[in-house]
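Dear support,

I submitted the protein below through the web form. The confirmation email said the job was done, but the results page showed an empty box. After a refresh the structure appeared. I'm attaching both so you can tell me whether what I see now is the final result or a partial one.
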Amino acid sequence: MLAEVDSPEESAALADWLADAGLEADDVVPAARTVLLDGVDPGRAMALLETWPGGSAVRARRTVDIPVSYDGPDLPLVARRWEVSVDEVVRRHTSLTFTSAFCGFAPGFAYLAGLPEAWWLPRLADPRPRVPAGSVAIAGEWCGVYPTASPGGWLLLGTTDVALWDAASAEPALLAPGTQVRFVSA
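What the results page shows now:
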């Protein structure tokens, strides 16, 4: 079953609310503007969804600080588009607290919400064939960290050595939905 909402914040809030409401499900997966309800009784799920009060408040889980070497090849481009210095790009990025809205694209890749709308920038017109693992990047309304090397079109701000995915862990994704994330200049 797929529930549609208006924003990533509402998606995360609905997923939290469903967990608190005791929905019996194999999995509840928030995304950008939907929540997947896997293994649910459709009638019970619909009845429960009809009682959701709405909103976008998300239960904060934990805060993760990620050290970043701000050495990304797109830093000068971001500075030009924001009409600031490279140092100011770093200051702005490290001043924010992001929230993991949902995971996707690759195991451990979290879409981090919290970039002010005035700072949103489009993806590259021509994606790179290979973005190194640990690359910290922005695109549109999102910030993210590439957990593995892969193609990608986001603007690269820097790199980190933090492991984002550990399949052997009880919670494999370091930045599971609801995690607060701060970037720290290394």
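Response: this is the final, complete result; the empty box was a page-load delay. The mean pLDDT is 92.
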